[in-house]
Amino acid sequence: MTHETYKSWWSTQEGQRRTYMHPVGNGAPVDRAMPIMVVRGRRDGPTFLTLAGVHGNEIEGIAAVQELFAGMDPESLAGTWVAVGCSNVDAYLAADRGGAADGQDMARVFPGRPDGTLTERVAHCLTEDFIRRASFLCDLHSAGRTYRMAPMTGYALASGDLTAVQREAARAFGLPLVWGTAPNKGRSLSAALALGVPAIYTETTGTGGCLREDVAAYVEGVRRVMIHLRMLEGEAHPPSGQRLVEDSTPESGNLQEHNVTPVSGRFRAAVDVNDCVREGDLLGDVVDLFGKVRFECRAEKCGAVLMIRHVPRVEAGDALAVVV
Ligand SMILES: [Zn+2]
What spacing in Å lies between the alpha carbon of 58 and ligand 1's midpoint? Predict the structure, then answer.
């Protein structure tokens, strides 16, 4: 270990801003340590944790926290902002959703295990060294390479006051759609829920890129939540026209369970994100190598398209679209 300057983020002094590599520990490789950016204000306040790169090919959040850190002044901050600049380094280096070491989806293994796979060890470290010590969590995702998504902020429908706290913070983020769903197993949000830490997550375009406007919306959104939490001065009223949907159906928030194709082939989208559809409308179809339609994917309900498949090649069992 060559961490001569290593001091965990929670020992950051008032008025200090710093970066360091946080080791995963529990025997995980030292070169899979996580880049941490932390700013501690002059005044007391919440400890706001921002996670980026839980999926290694979702770059928007990684870019946003770098910009946030560059512009974060401890003199105007109450409390502590701590960001994990890339949570899943193994997956980031592989430019993939999961890492090369075990191929696991980190958003299915929280709260992790200290003696598990690399992905499970990282999730355990994130749970114990970060989420447990936070008073609020924001986990920045995107549609990655495979899908296109409309910008949204989500949260788990919990019991008691927690849902209201999460809903208001999700609205404050300022994205056009706010979506509360049944809690999912294995997410950073489920680890937070188990610890009583209010949490939200965000999604945006993806398609393998990192759009300038998506990064800007994430930077603005995190700042707006910090205003909402009274960590920064300013106003963060939800924008007019913001849509709020809550759905307590089990698995409602699991994007991979919506409109699954029963056949492999080539997907042809018939709609784009934000399109309004009615029940029975064609969302797209799956054709074989002769162009023959093998499956028609039709909307099961009326709503707006939140997510649509971007990469044409599909395997049976892949999600094609999500309507909310
Ligand atoms: Zn993700």
Answer: 6
Q: State how many domains the chain has.
A: 2
Please indicate, yes or no, whether residues 139 and 93 belong to a single structural domain of this protein. yes
Question: Position of tokens 């299915």?
Answer: 108
Give every residue of the chain whose pLDDT is below 70, as ranges: 1-6
Nearest to 141 by CA among 191, 205, 93, 68: 205
Q: Do 67 and 198 fall within a single domain?
A: yes
CA of 195 to the centre of ligand 1 (A): 21
pLDDT of residue 4: 38
Q: Mark whether 243 and 264 lie in a shared domain.
A: no
Work out the burial of residue 9: count CB atoms within 10 Å of its CB; fewer than 13 is exposed, 13-18 middle, 19 or more buried: buried
> How far, in Å, from the CA of 144 to the mean position of ligand 1?
7
**For residue 103, which of 114, 115, 111, 94 has the smallest C-alpha distance?**
94
Domain that holds residue 169: 9-247
Spatial distance between the Cα atoms of 69 and 47, rounded to a whole number of angstroms: 15
